[in-house]
Amino acid sequence: MAAHPDQPDTATGTDRVKRGMAEQLKGGVIMDVVTPEQARIAEDAGAVAVMALERVPADIRAQGGIARMSDPDMVQGIIDAVSIPVMAKARIGHFVEAQVLQSLGVDYIDESEVLSPADEAHHIDKHAFTVPFVCGATDLGEALRRIAEGAAMIRSKGEAGTGNVVEATRHMRALRAGIKRLGTLDETELFVAAKELRAPHDLVVEVARLGALPVVLFTAGGIATPADAAMMMQLGAQGVFVGSGIFKSGDPAQRAAAIVQATTFFDDPDVIAKVSRGLGEAMVGINVSALPESERYATRGW
Amino acid sequence: MSTDSVRPVIGVLALQGDVREHVAALQAEGADARSVRRPEELADVDGIVLPGGESTTIARLAGRFGLLEPLREALRAGLPAYGTCAGMILLADRLVDAPPGQPTVGGLDVTVRRNAFGRQVDSFESGVDLAGIGGGSLQAVFIRAPWVEEAGPGVEVLGRVVGGAADGRIVAVRQGNVVATSFHPELTGDRRVHALFVDIVRAHLAEQAGADAGNERGKST
Q1: Phi, psi (5° rounding) for residue A37?
Q2: How far apart are CA A237 and CA A176, in angstroms?
Q3: What 3-state DSSP class applies to B44?
Q4: What does the pLDDT look like over B12-25, one tens digit per residue?
């Protein structure tokens, strides 16, 4: 895979290259888009990347059925439309969908609970790929299991397609509390923590030492307003995924730009107030506690 | 190398991107590093770093929050600047393969091609030798990186890619007090390029302070 085979120290797909890509996205907003036109609106609004998919989570929820990887033509159309990075989703455990997305030249793969899982025990072996992966997590143990499998970036799962930030809040707080707790443990206790977290001991030690995940942490799942995005940033997210929240709202271009600005100035209420004015209708939203267990995407993945 | 103990204030443009890594590298090299998101914060710095990130996003936010013109003015007035990846794009006077109308800060007489090496699957790390930086080649991380397609006569080429399809492409340049690299030294823990930039900022400060400062330290500015 080396781009420069005559240079022995040249390599593609290293951890540094995969994780480094996510470092470049920090402080930014990644937006779900279903057409090249939406991708251009997102790029114009200042998105750091777009997530190419056939249906946004709100529609997957409404229409039901099996949700799969997007059609290659559709992904290609979006890759051709914009100059910013393009991500796409593969089903949990569906390593062939991931192979196809890598072959299409997608810049990042989201192994996503928003699609119907393809394997009820195994996630994709992400070390086997040159393209980097982002995975969802609800707590520290889940995040570390995904990193052990090769995820180069983690996002909260939240509850996609609801326009309700409550689950993303829960996951960001759980991740933060888990990381903080590790910092208080001694060497002996870290062995037990690794067992409890069902995560590799070396990763647990690394998190305790860093006081953070060894990869970039974004938030996702239910972010619908500039204030939602800023709140997640204040809770420790390093960037934001917005799914249905933009193109299911009244004025997508303006809302997209407002969420981008609120993410940069997440600690400045004056800016957040200013950009939150006159945005029109937010997406309608769903009360998560009213959702039956079988319709909660955050419980997918193991 | 300067042995000056002056602790220069170096800003890192913090609209989006890998700001924290630059701040850490600059601090470790003896600078007082701080993030810059507002025009008034720019007034307090002795040098500015434009980090890696998404250049379209950074340019758009810089425009919206009134930073583009103040940055241009500061660079014209001689403020030292260092850009990595997206930062190199922002410092370029001319762009190839950018969305129509993407503004730049400018200041470097170069033409830069965005995403020149390809998509993320083509991103790579490789050893690069840099002119004026000793200690052997530097392991350079290229992420959807740009390269310098053409450099004007006043631009010093510091480094090129060796081997492969991009053999000989320019990936590090300097013009006066402005430095740019296609790659991300802030991701590797090798701080030699940051040390060079801190030296440039110190030298510029000494120059501004006049001949006295230079003579006292027995070192010409």
Answers
A1: -65, -45
A2: 10
A3: coil
A4: 999 999 999 999 99
B76 in reach of chain A (CB within 8 A)? no
Instruction: Look up the CATH number of domain B3-220.
Output: 3.40.50.880
Q: What is the DSSP string of B108-122?
A: EEEEEETTTT-SGGG
CB neighbours of residue A102 within 10 Å? 19
The answer to whether A121 contacts chain B (CB < 8 Å) is no
**Other C-beta atoms lying within 10 Å of the C-beta of residue A287:** 9
* CA gap A283, A299 in Å, rounded: 23
Q: Which is nearest to A171 in space by CA: A153, A152, A157, A154?
A: A157
Note whether B89 and B114 are within 8 A (CB): yes
Q: Dig out the tokens for A185 from the structure.
A: 């443990």
Q: Find the largest Cα–Cα distance for chain B.
A: 53
Please say whether the beta carbons of A181 and A197 come within 8 A.
Answer: no
**CB A9 within 8 Å of CB B139:** yes
CB contact under 8 A, B117 and A3: yes
B121 touches chain A (CB under 8 A): yes
The nearest alpha carbon in chain A to B186 belongs to A20
Closest-CA residue of A relative to B60 is A46
Check CB contact of A103 with chain B, cutoff 8 Å. no
Domain coordinates of chain B in residue numbers? 3-220
d(C-alpha A196, C-alpha A110), whole Å:
26
Structure tokens, A83: 């100059």
* Residues paired with B128 in a beta bridge: B138
- Residue B213 pLDDT exceeds 60: no
For B147-171, write each residue's pLDDT tens digit. Answer: 999 999 999 999 999 988 899 999 9
Cross-chain CB nearest to A24 (options B117, B143, B167): B143
Chain A: give the shortest CA distance to residue B139, in Å: 8
pLDDT tens for each residue of A19-32:
999 999 999 999 99
SS3 A3: coil
Strand partners, A89: A110
Q: Within 13 Å of residue B154, how many CA atoms lie on the same side as its CB? A: 8
Task: Evaluate if pTM is beyond 0.90.
Answer: yes
Reported as a single tens digit per residue, the pLDDT across A104-144 is 999 999 999 999 999 999 999 999 999 999 999 999 999 99
Identity of the amino acid at B30? G
For residues A125 and A119, what is the distance between their CA atoms, to the nearest angstrom?
12
Biggest CA pair distance of chain A:
59
The Cα A2–Cα A131 span in angstroms is 13
